[in-house]
Amino acid sequence: MIASIGELLIDLISVEEGDLKDVRLFEKHPGGAPANVAVGVSRLGVKSSLISKVGNDPFGEYLIEELSKENVDTRGIVKDEKKHTGIVFVQLKGASPSFLLYDDVAYFNMTLNDINWDIVEEAKIVNFGSVILARNPSRETVMKVIKKIKGSSLIAFDVNLRLDLWRGQEEEMIKVLEESIKLADIVKASEEEVLYLENQGVEVKGSMLTAITLGPKGCRLIKNETVVDVPSYNVNPLDTTGAGDAFMAALLVGILKLKGLDLLKLGKFANLVAALSTQKRGAWSTPRKDELLKYKEAREVLAP
């Protein structure tokens, strides 16, 4: 089982292209990077759980219902009586989105009392990202969970940098990201994130595997001294909102499924899943296992 811990929220995606101040219509979609990964893992045929916090409100109910439809274990989702469910406005310009994320929401209010330890202890991989670390008490909570399981489960960290969330806390952000990377067995980051962090003196390296997404160029996988560049699977993207999370879901599933961690097979599979995810709108865009089995790159991982 793969468990993800972190933000679960509503993406309000602009129907029209343009600046948020100009657009009038939005579509409601479920989102939050750990939730997107949890759904992706489930669609790829692996047992998946999410640990998060939503408000005791209609949006929170909607998100739990939608996760249940995707066969994601929702026992780890707690309702907050005081804070509302998180909301993000997503602005589309071409296929590349930008985000306006609201603060002081339920997932940032996650405490140790909210953690379902049965899920954490059952997981072979525990996945988290940087958004949930931008505020307390959620930062302290997640870091305590990760430190407690270090060595008993594989830890996967997605840098997923959102600089707007860290305004005025840049030094703290670098410290938190560096600590998270050092704790992680598997680290995923974009090429831009790697450059940014290296300029701040932070080495982006997972102790077992580092995955660097290169946009239209594909990805780079690094294990010890072995570096493999894997070209992208070419498609015309409609919406790249969930592509990084689809890549992460495929990466984690591939790590569980592949014997001996074949970097080329792993990279081809993750690139394929990410590319196909851009053919649908919204962040829950990972293709399902039965759709993927017609591709050799997927069969080598999902049905070897």
From TrEMBL:
A single MF term (Gene Ontology): ATP binding
Coiled coil, from the record: none
Carbohydrate kinase PfkB domain: residues covered: 2-284
A GO BP annotation: fructose metabolic process
Pfam families assigned: PfkB
InterPro entries membership: Carboh/pur_kinase_PfkB_CS, PfkB_Carbo_kinase, PfkB_dom, Ribo/fructo_kinase, Ribokinase-like
Keyword Transferase included in the entry's annotation: yes
The organism's place on the tree of life at top rank: Archaea
Keywords, alphabetical: ATP-binding, Kinase, Nucleotide-binding, Transferase
CDD domains linked to this entry: bac_FRK (cd01167)
Presence of keyword Ubl conjugation: no
Family as reported in the entry's similarity comment: Belongs to the carbohydrate kinase PfkB family.
PANTHER family reported for this sequence: HEXOKINASE FAMILY MEMBER, PSEUDOURIDINE KINASE-RELATED
Protein name (database record): Carbohydrate kinase
